[in-house]
Design brief:
Elements lengths: L2 H26 L6 E4 L9 E7 L9 E3 L2 E2 L5 E5 L5 E6 L3 E2 L2 E3 L3 E4 L4 E7 L6 H10 L8 H11 L3 H15 L6 E7 L4 E8 L2 E6 L5 E4 L16 E3 L5 H5 L13 H5 L5 H14 L24 H8 L48 E7 L5 H4 E7 L8 E3 L24 H12 L3 H34 L3 H34 L13 H7 L7
Antiparallel strand pairs: 1-2, 1-14, 2-16, 3-8, 4-7, 5-6, 8-9, 10-11, 11-12, 12-13, 13-15, 16-17, 17-18
Helix pairs in contact: 3-4, 10-12, 11-12
Amino acid sequence: MNNKKIELSRIFLKLIIITGLIMSISLTGLADCTTVSVGKNASVDGTTIISYNCDCGMCPIDARIVPAKDWEEGDVITIRGWGGEVLGEIPQVPHTFQYVQNIMAVLNEKGVAVGETTCPIDTSTEYGQEVEKVMFSSEGFVDYGTFLTIVLERASTAREAVRIFGDFIETYKWAPIEAETINFADGNEVWIFEVYGHDLWCAFKLPDDEVFVSANAARIRNIDLDDTENVMHSPNIVSFAVEHGWYDPSSGEPFSPADIYAPNRKPYSLRREWRAFDLMAPSLGLGPHEMEYPQTVVPDKKLSVHDVYKIMGDYYAGTEYDLTKGPAAGPWGNPFRYTNQSSREDKRDWERSINLHRTSTFHITQINGKLPDPIKGVAWMGVGAPDSSYITPLSGSMSSLPDCFMIGAKGEDFQRDSQGWVSLYVQEMTTLRYNEAIQDLYAYRDPKLEMLYQVVPLVQEKAAEIYQTDPDAALSLLHNFYYQNALGLFESWKKLGDKLLGKYAMGYRNFQTAPYPEWWNEIIGFGYIER
């Protein structure tokens, strides 16, 4: 075996592990994620923006740069199952692009980004049970964890990413796992892609002035399959449904792939869809109890990265579902709800918000289509519940990430030199007295972010100017800026965690008595004792 094939094995060893983890998570219903997608004319600065909350409690919290690589003719990628068994092989391409990765690829050096959310079928109906049985009978081996990373190794545009992923699904078939909704972006276009099972998939280009939300339920219902410029799909997307008696073309009913292949209209998903759309377009007057929301909407005002960040960290504040209210929030308005389910069949649980305590990693990718490929993309990356975390701007063209991003794992001891662990440390510190600690966090974090929102585009523009005559110098400037800034944010976040611990430790406020509110005393039966 030559050196390139040895390296191939090393690179895909981690992908094999992650693939097995992802497939296990999909089958147990724990990979519950939320995405937001923003067209370039719906953003404040003409960039495309997509987000991804990876709400998988046991998933990795590290990140790294995977470099570009040239491959020899005949090299292949071996796809393995959770037990190490070989599921299949696909040919390697002559050259793969560099990208920044956490649980999977996030953003590549060409400025193409990706996110996803798993879309289980509602099996409470006979139709849902029938569809799930058919969809899970697929004998393919394409999954999102491995193959979306492979797509970003190869795609120069979002449109190309759709075609590559669609070809994979048609050629090698979807694994016997749940459906997926995926968002691809490249600075000019955002594409929404859904895969349902077997070789079935469809995708549409998000209108430039609109936004899309996905929250663990397939949502592509209204598309024109004949619009080849803005819609792509597998050749049998309609005929498969007809063959199984799930759709009658003569009925006059519109063809809705989401409702046919992955039916699910449960509040678990619908409530998050409503909340995100209502935050972006309150003028629509959408209510929280509807059974279907618009596929896409035009936001009332153009959105910034911070607007999307606040949506990612939302817990229904100010609504009837506000998770900072009531006995479950404790005396200090803690919105975190640890799952109460003893099994997948146990339907009892807390209201599901977008912000979630078990989020492993999340990112907001912002891409300026007017800049050169290696410069145009920014991945604002974080770990933990977004509301009590921070985001670090990184690039797919960086030569490396600081060591703090590449160490630390759940299930291991806390590591103070791990960026992921420190972010979770601060998250835990906010729970000491959330209603006050979160305000301290905002006051500490948001001015730093506001500075970065202003400075990052200026650095990109300067790098783009230098790139015209000296590409290496331009990429060096970008790397040093992102790298040093990441180190500074990491060190400052450690200090914040220590400040919160010092301020709120042992039930005090700066070691001064801070009694429970009277309403809480009444709930817990707080009484009197002779002193």
